[in-house]
Amino acid sequence: MPGRLYFGACPLLICCLTILVVTTAAPINTDVDIQSRQQTSNSDIQVLREIHGKTYSLPLSPNPKPFLVGSTVTCFTLQLLYSAEEADHKVMLWIHYTEADSGLKRVHTISFAVKEERTPSANNFHFEFEGSSKNGLTVQEAEFVHHPTSCDVLKVTLKNGDCVYIALPTSSSKSGVNGCTQTSEHGHCTYETYDVSESEVCLKYTSFKDRGRPEATEINTPSPEDNKPLLETDIQLQEYQDFKRGLLFSSLVLVYSSYGDDPFPLCMITYRPNEAPGPDGNLYILTPGVTGDQAMVQEFKPYKLDGHNDTFKAAARIRRDGGFYESRVIFTDRRQCILLRTPKYHNLCELFTGGRYTNGILNNICFFVFTVYCKQPEKRFTNLGDCWPPANRGN
Hints:
- This is Putative salivary lipocalin.
- Keywords: Signal.
- The protein is an alpha+beta fold.
- It has 7 helices and 22 strands.
């Protein structure tokens, strides 16, 4: 049975909308509050938002050894995710690459916090290193250096003094790598110029095609009584259950699962809305449910539930162990998290967040709603390697 959300004399999710407005519907006010305590300029925040969720690839000619891994690779991509955790801004780099010698596919993360500045600079802002999943990678400092509108540059300096400038073309740049011209400012540091990547080139994807039809889902008519709890499928909640909008903010990582022995967990989902065949693009998913280091890709075809407005498509069929199953959105804040239920697959409840595995100011309501609808999870993931073994292999 779908879960019910209830508190006092009114449905709990409706009662919590004032909290939701503070955390998601009014991001400008949240940023102003954070800025006053952390002295981070709005232009800095805008830079992070613009590159949030984008994937960049490094051309391997003439240098097939990216600075951050120090070994010869056959492909190398990185993705930057940005979020706000209470009073802090957080940045996480996801690195995907394939080793040339072994052929192993690897995924690593490097985590930073935006450093509090006593006097914010108009030219750059600094990061504090918080950790990396790659053994031996210890960062001394990192900073974003503002360049012309065609390019944003991230400078990373290691403990041993080695450093690299990572040049990322902006969305306004139409020249790709040509818009990130190397300058004399880099000194002895390595200079790597990236290009925007339209696909996950470093992972081999197995394609799955759903030839079934959307399942009919019964909608319970809401009770006229004010104190009657709402079902997950109640039409009063539909504006918080739009599947597509819940996926648009970034790559998503699985944090909570109600099925502890799931052989096919969806460890990381990256949504490409503009890819063929359309109109809604494809989902790229890391899961141990496919062979070896491979991942999977499937067409995303969201649809509305019976009785819902055509605007809000709350369900889609997703490949699980042995077939496609209807997954329904319980709740999404449309910015940092999404909760899914898959009734015919062990009545599975899942919580995905936009790159962060912890509760913070922008996704705390999602952790709360999961607990109310789905109780305590059987499985908690604290990093990608907990879920997807290739990310956990030795370095």
